[in-house]
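hey so u asked for the seq, here:
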Amino acid sequence: MVDTGNDSDNSESNKRKRQKVWDHFKLKIKDNIVVCVHCKMELAYHNSTTSMLQHLKRKTTRDKLDKKYVDIKDEMKKALQETDSVALTTDIWMSVLQQRLIWW
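ran it, structure tokens below
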């Protein structure tokens, strides 16, 4: 089998990821926990950065969704403030049909 050196590249990449994750956590050695510096969540620490990386991934995704929600909400508020009137409609046909199904 020929050694291509990919293992060392892979381990270097993993090592860099592990080192970066420590920018976002503080270790409490005596309690075997790490604390996220962003949200103060405590995670169990067992000599692995996997749970920390997963936490950051979830938090980053949640933060992006929260930002998108706020952006869309602000956009809708602005559009509604610039509008003279709003018409809300319903599908009467479906309402009548649903009432019939309920009564039968």
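Helices lie at 6-21, 50-81, 92-103. Residues 1-8 have pLDDT under 50 and may be disordered.
lmk if thats what u needed
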